[in-house]
Amino acid sequence: MPKLAYLGPEGTFTEEALRILAPGAERLPSTNVPAALEAVRRGQADGAVVPLENSLEGAITTTLDELARGESLLINAELLLPVEFSLLARPGTEIAHIKRVFTHPAAITQCRNFIARELPDAVVVAAPSTAAAAQEVALPGSPYDAAIAARIAGEHYGLVELAGGIGDRPDTVTRFVQVSRPGPLPEPTGADRTSLVAFLADDHPGALLEMLTEFSVRGVNLSRIESRPTGDGIGRYFFHFDFEGHVADARVGEAVSGLHRICSRVRFLGSYPRADALSPQIKRGTRDDDFAEAASWLDRIRTGRV
């Protein structure tokens, strides 16, 4: 039975994602994303499940930065989890009596309309996680009257749901990834995603365009690009890329090789099945057979067989 670390405590959306991705795994709650990933690097866990991006809030920058630094880890699976927030409180609490609410900053942003409409006089305080908020509210003598968290948190900590589905956007989803120490990659499925981090060799006009061209000329479709500061000064960045296909595909492998030639460093983060199972539209001339035929043709002319 594998042991998987996750953003804890019990009752987070991350735990819910872990239960779906690896229902038989032993769960190891961690205080934050860096701690979950460090547990994998130190061998305290076989892998970790962490949030990567949210359809409303965008990238989870802590996760992006942690995957780019430290010992390499590989993504081997992903999950798109619908995010549904609930207002949770101790039994006997009424919404009209709520004066202090505890929740994660992302939940505050995503439930802004509900808070303004139903809790206009309440003070909302930021918590380390939605589950930590629920855990605190459940304590006798807690200074908080309610938490905004996942319904699963209420089940863990004995809170009742005063209102469900309180997010401003009912279609909000969070993308979670399962990571492990480097090892064999998942086999190509025809509906895969590849992730990597690329560092500029130097800052010059067209530097980003040069990287994007490596994908464009080979028909590789980007699904996400994020710039993050290197920490070495203002204006110095590295880039996270997600794109369609598996590194075993000729077009993807050549694009990754091209980046390796022009960048100071490329960190490969994995090729793995897409959660939505969508297959890419492959342009004419960029299929594996096309690359193989072109290589064969080049070999012939190099040996004078024109």
Write the layout of secondary structure elements.
Elements (H helix, E strand, L loop, with lengths): L2 E5 L5 H9 L4 E5 L2 H9 L5 E8 L3 E2 L1 H8 L5 E9 L3 E4 L10 E4 L1 H6 L1 H7 L4 E4 L3 H8 L8 E4 L1 H7 L2 E5 L8 E8 L11 E9 L6 H10 L5 E8 L7 E8 L5 H13 E11 L14 H15 L4
Helix pairs in contact: 6-7, 8-9
Could you characterize what this model shows?
- With 306 residues, the chain is α/β, with parallel strands linked by helices.
- 30% of the residues lie in helices and 31% in strands.
- Strands 1, 2, 3, 4, 5 and 11 form a six-stranded mixed beta sheet that branches.
- Strand 13 (222-229) and strand 14 (237-244) form a beta hairpin.
- Helix 6 (130-137) packs parallel to helix 7.
Compute the average pLDDT.
Answer: 94
How far the N terminus sits from the C terminus, by CA atoms, comes to 58 Å
Strand content: 25-35%
Q: What is the succession of H and E elements?
A: EHEHEEHEEEHHEHEHEEEHEEHEH
Kindly name the structural category: alpha/beta
Q: Give the beta-strand count.
A: 15
Uncertain spans: none
Q: Assign an overall shape.
A: elongated
The main β sheet shows up as: 6 strands, mixed
Number of helices: 10
